[in-house]
Amino acid sequence: MRYREIGKTSLVVSDIGFGTWPLSGDSHGSLAYGKTDDTESIAALQLAYRCGINFFDTADLYGYGHVENLLSKALGSVRDKIIIASKVGMINNDSDTDLSTLHIFESINGSLKRLNTDYLDLYLLHSPKIEQITDEVINTLQSLKKAGKIRYYGLSTKAVADGFPAVEKFKFDVIETNYSIMDNRCDKNGLLDLCAKTFTGVIARTPLSQGIITGEFTYNNDSTDRRNSIPRETYDRLTSAYSEIVNSMKDKFTTKAQTALRFCLSHPAVSSVIPGMKTRTEVMENCYASEFGPLSSDELNSIKNICKMYSL
Fold it and tell me: Which carries the bigger pLDDT value, residue 221 or residue 185?
C-alpha cells in the first residue's frame, strides 16, 4: 500500500481508502448498494486495515449511524492508527440538509459516541448547496476544531463546480468530489489543477461509477439497491465505453476495478480514492491497485480518446 499526504494537512493516508456507504445495507430504512451482512462488513473493514488501508470515509447518514457503529466494532482497538472522515448535514435519503449550529453540535457528538473516539481526523459538510455554507457554519466548524473534536474540515461536494468556491472562497482543507474514468469533469474543468496549486486535499469518490463499469452491479430485484434507478441508456453507454477502454490497455494483468482506481491515482492532486466496498474479496482486489501504481501516459491518452468517442 502506498500513502499520500492530504493537501496541506498533516494527515497521511493510504491512497486506497475505504468508502463505507455500501455497508449501510438496508439498516433503518437507508438505501445504498443492497443488503449487507454485518459480520462480513466487520471482516472486510479489519482485512482492509491489515492490508494497509488506514483511511475510512463514513457519515452519520450511512445507515443512520449504523456504519459508524460498525467502524468502532471493527477497528476501535486501532483508533490511533487510522484516519477517520465523517460527514454532517444531510439528514435523509432525499438529501434534505440541516447545517444549523445546533444540528452540527448534536451530530458531531453522536458520531464521536458511535465511533467511540474523542475526535475526528476530518469532518466534511455532506453535499449541501453552496449557498447553505454561511459564516455561521464556518464559525461552528472552527469552534469544533478549537475544541479538539475535529482536526480538519472540508466539503463533500454536491456538484463538481462547488469545488471552486470551496477552495477559493472558503479555503477548505479538503474537498471530496466525484472522479472516475466515466466522470472526469473535475479534471476537465481545472478543479484538480486548482487543488494541486493551492495544496487542497482531494478525495476521489465513486471511482468505480457505483460498480457499473466494473460489472459489480447489474439490475436486480433488491429494493434497497438504489442503483436500480439508473437509466438503462446510461448503464449501457458506460459499460460499453469501459469495456473498450479495458480492451485497449497494454497492461492486461489488472482487473476492471484496479484499472479504474489506477486512473484516479494517476492525477497528482488526488490524495486518496475511496471505492465503496462490501466484502473481503472486494477489499483484496482494490488494495492491489495501489501496488500497481498510476497508469502510463500512453494509457491515459488512450482513455481520453475513447471517452471523447462516447461523449464522456
Answer: 185
